[in-house]
Amino acid sequence: MSSLRSALVCGFVALATGACFAPLGPLVDFGRDCTDDLGCADFEPLAPLFYSKQCNEAFCDQGRCNTRPRDRPLAGVSGDCRRMVCRDGSPTSIVDDSDVPTGNECQDGTCNGGWSSLRSKADGTSCSIGVCRSGTCRPAVEPSIDASTEDASADASDDAPVDAVDDG
Q1: CA–CA distance, 10 with 14 (Å, rounded to integer)
Q2: Is the domain of 46 the same as that of 18?
Q3: Do 46 and 29 touch, CB atoms closer than 8 A?
Q4: Both 86 and 58 in a single domain?
Q5: Mean pLDDT over all residues of the chain?
Q6: In a domain, 6, yes or no
Q7: Percent of the chain with pLDDT over 90
Q8: Residue 25 domain boundaries
Q9: Which residue, 98, 99, 95, 91, is CA-closest to 71?
Q10: How far is CA 14 from CA 17, 27, 63, 107, in A?
Q11: What is the pLDDT of residue 42?
Q12: Could you tell me if residue 39 is inside a domain?
């Protein structure tokens, strides 16, 4: 009975779109003849809403081009705690806690259930130009600037007359 129901649903979809996506079967284009799989190499079905070329492969099925799901890994974004794969003929994002984010040398990336986070390494941890401070690599010894001395000397020079001569 379920195959009859699938056939009826497929028939209604075919009337509307010229193609059919059976719930557990392949996508069918009703207008393409073939003699072998090479004849279907550039085949794309007429119902693109249900079709992903990267996740399906075309083949010749009893003289007609058809497609079947191809489960495989896909290229994705690195460091987002997820992985793109083809599943049942569609691109799907799945949790991958080994795909940790990369911040900088003073941060550690972690994944937990597909959620990413960056945590600052302890202040004083060695890094390429010195030590880590608040998640950033900084020189080990930074020059200190005494703002009050700098401001006072600037104020004194501003008050001196331009044509003053030291009689010494």
Answers
A1: 6
A2: yes
A3: yes
A4: no
A5: 74
A6: no
A7: 29
A8: 13-69
A9: 91
A10: 5, 10, 19, 55
A11: 81
A12: yes
Residue 150 domain-assigned (yes or no): no
For 110-165, how does the pLDDT look when each residue is reduced to its tens digit (9 = 90+)? 999 999 999 999 999 999 999 999 999 999 876 666 555 555 444 444 454 545 45
If one counts the domains in the chain, the total is: 2
For tokens 């990267």, what's the residue?
54
Cβ proximity of 12 and 2 under 8 Å: no
Task: Using the 3D structure, point to which of 69, 97, 116 is the last residue of a domain.
Answer: 69
- State the pairing for strand pair 130-133/126-127: antiparallel
d(CA 38, CA 27): 18
Residue spans of beta strands (DSSP E) within the chain: 19-21, 27-33, 56-61, 64-69, 82-87, 90-95, 107-112, 115-120, 126-127, 130-133, 136-139
Phi-psi region of 11 (alpha: psi -120 to 50; beta: other; left: phi over 0): alpha
- What lies within 8 Å, CB to CB, of 74 at 6+ separation is 54, 55, 84, 85, 86, 91
Of 69, 94, 113, the domain-final residue: 69
Q: List C-alpha distances in Å: 8 to 51, 82, 154, 164.
A: 20, 38, 89, 104
88 confidence band (pLDDT: 50, 70, 90): confident
